[in-house]
């Protein structure tokens, strides 16, 4: 729960909400159902997904791929990020190591810049990836099948540099809108972190009691 070497924003304190959404993520991943977590910034969407995927990796169930998108993200770079973790399974088939599922986690999926006619090339690539479970080899346009793969996306609602994602993609995703934490939940989280922090060597009992 508390790791003195971890970033404050990477600390995960289990609550009823994090447990519910982690369970749904785990379940849908095993069923190869793509999903999308949304909600206001700072409510822990990315942390829930990252911790759940790393737990599944420790259980040797998934091969996670983490992609953080920005306005400069290109479709080519996105495709390379996926393909560089794959193994060849056949002449035109690729996938994760035997016995594992590929989990492509795309954070801030609505950040890529919108082109003149409204398209976002990285989003269209991911839509094709979800629709066809495949990607094209760009050199000769040969279709490559991607086996045992799934997409997990995460983003705050459209505003500022965040664009509205095309319904061509969202229609394929199981969407969850995470609520803001209640006062009781925030108290639980910060109390657990503070207790862990004060439990490290160097603090006197008097300070801990305060």
Please tell me about this protein's structure.
The two termini are 22 Å apart. The protein has helices at residues 16-30, 45-58, 75-83, 121-132, 167-170, 183-198, 205-209, and strands at residues 35-38, 62-68, 87-88, 93-95, 101-107, 134-136, 143-146, 149-155, 174-177. It has a single domain (14-195), classed as 3-Layer(aba) Sandwich (Rossmann fold), CATH 3.40.50.300. α1 packs across α2 (45-58) and α3 (75-83) crosses α4. 27% of the residues are buried. It has seven helices and nine strands; from the N terminus they run αβαβαβββαβββαβαα. It is an alpha/beta fold and 210 residues long. The protein has a five-stranded parallel sheet with strand order 2-5-8-1-9, with helices on both faces. Strands 3-4-7-6 form a four-stranded mixed sheet.
């Amino acid at each position: 729960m508390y790791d003195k070497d971890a970033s404050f924003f990477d600390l995960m304190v289990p609550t009823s909400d994090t447990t519910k959404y982690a369970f749904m993520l785990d379940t849908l991943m095993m069923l190869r159902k793509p999903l999308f977590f949304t909600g206001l910034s700072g409510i822990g969407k990315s942390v829930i997904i990252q911790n759940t995927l790393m737990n599944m990796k420790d259980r040797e169930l998934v091969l996670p791929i983490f992609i953080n998108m920005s306005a400069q993200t290109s479709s080519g770079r996105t495709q390379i990020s996926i393909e560089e973790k794959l193994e060849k399974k056949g002449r035109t088939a690729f996938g994760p190591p035997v016995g594992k599922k590929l989990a492509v986690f795309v954070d801030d999926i609505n950040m890529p810049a919108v082109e003149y006619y409204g398209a976002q090339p990285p989003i269209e690539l991911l839509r094709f990836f979800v629709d066809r479970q495949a990607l094209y080899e760009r050199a000769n346009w040969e279709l490559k099948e991607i086996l045992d793969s799934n997409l997990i996306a995460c983003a705050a609602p459209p505003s500022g540099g965040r664009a509205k994602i095309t319904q061509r993609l969202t229609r394929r995703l199981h969407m969850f809108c995470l609520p803001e934490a209640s006062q009781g939940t925030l108290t639980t989280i910060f109390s657990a972190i503070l207790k862990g922090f004060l439990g490290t060597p160097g603090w006197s009992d008097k300070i801990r009691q305060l």
